[in-house]
Design brief:
This protein is an alpha/beta fold. The protein has 14 helices and 13 strands. It starts with a strand and ends with a helix. The structure holds pyridoxal-5'-phosphate.
Length: about 350
């Protein structure tokens, strides 16, 4: 049995999802005549109580389009030092939008309103870049699937507004946070100028992300998506998978969270594990103690058919997902036990 815990992006479409894809009505989306893409965009905009939405081939492109539409070259974006938009998008914020990133020293990928307020001060000085955008990530990827406190987000939004900053949410795993904290998409729609969500992570679609915002913002995004080469033709086959995912795979994220917490509890009981970070959603970050080489641990697990990754500095990561079952959980726990 192969147990792939490298990411929640490794899932394959189920038979039912494939059927939904096969039955999709499609058209040329560059001419806005793909009914299934239109349906997905309307559905997501409505879910979040926002005006409009736009389908993208990847979360990276959706975030990059958002950064580009809110800024001019030379402007400054504020984000956590662990932000995906800064660390994992190939330097895209600098390359595509020409923005300067101001990194805030947060905790598990999350900063406070007070930290943002301190960071934005001094705007009138001609020496400094224009402050234009705040970008937050929920759940945080590098922060181990941590969820923001919604009250803190409201405070951050106030600071952003007061300082004329656009507010973007990288919500690649937002649905994990919504399920874990019992929050709603509309709460987030009220707070942010733009939100990106990923359909190909925990929700299990093979491809795709959606950017959500005002009509004006999405008109700009449409142009930027074309410029980035992300305008697709009969994308309705992919949108059908996304619609299926939204209709069927949100509530079940709680199973992924339960399994991740169980893995964490088991890991904590082993003497060869030095630390397990707090688990709020579907990401488990842990460290082996000094007597074990983390790469060796990964290789031994791989030889048993269990795949996980290193995030550097001794950090190991397991991500639970749709294709990881309770039966696989039992096998994983047995293998982890036999390692000790
Ligand atoms: C995965 C991810 C993205 C987007 O990644 P793609 O692979 O381009 O879809 C963006 N932000 C975060 C936090 C992510 O985890």
């Amino acid at each position: 049995m192969k147990i792939d815990l490298i990411s929640d992006t490794v899932t394959r479409p189920t038979k039912e999802m494939l059927e939904a894809m096969m039955n999709a009505k499609v058209g040329d989306d560059v001419f806005k005549s793909d009914p299934t893409v239109n349906e997905l965009q309307n559905k997501v905009a409505e879910m979040f109580g926002m005006e409009d939405a736009l389908f993208f081939p990847s979360g990276t492109m959706a975030n990059q389009a958002a950064i580009k539409l809110h800024t001019q070259p030379g402007d400054r974006m504020f984000c956590d030092k662990w932000a995906h938009v800064y660390n994992y998008e190939g330097g895209g914020a600098a390359f595509n939008a020409g923005v300067t990133s101001h990194l805030i020293d947060g905790d598990r990928g999350m900063f406070t309103a007070k930290q943002l307020e301190e960071a934005v001060s001094g705007r009138a000085d001609i020496h400094v870049p224009y402050n234009r955008l705040v970008c937050i990530e929920n759940t945080t990827n590098k922060g181990g699937g941590a969820c923001w406190d919604f009250e803190e987000l409201k405070k951050i939004q106030k600071i952003a507004k007061k300082n004329d900053l656009a507010f973007h949410l990288d919500g690649a795993r937002l649905f994990n946070a919504l399920v874990a904290k019992n929050e709603t998409p509309k709460q987030y729609g009220e707070l942010f100028d733009t939100i990106s969500i990923c359909l190909s992570k925990g929700l299990g679609a093979p491809v795709g992300s959606v950017l959500i915002g005002t009509k004006t913002a999405m008109e700009k995004a449409l142009r930027i998506r074309k410029l980035f080469g992300g305008a697709m033709r009969q994308a309705g086959f992919l949108a059908a998978a996304a619609i299926y995912a939204l209709d069927n795979n949100i509530a079940r994220l709680a199973d992924d969270h339960r399994r991740a917490k169980r893995i964490g509890a088991v890991l904590e009981s082993f003497s060869y594990i030095s630390r397990v970070e707090l688990i709020e959603t579907n990401i488990v970050i842990f460290y082996v103690n000094d007597t074990i080489d983390p790469m060796d641990f990964i290789a031994k697990m791989e030889s048993k058919g269990i795949l996980l990754i290193s995030m550097g500095q001794g950090k190991l990561r397991i991500v639970t997902h749709l294709d990881f079952t309770d039966q696989m959980l039992d096998v994983l726990i047995e293998e982890l036990k036999s390692f000790s």
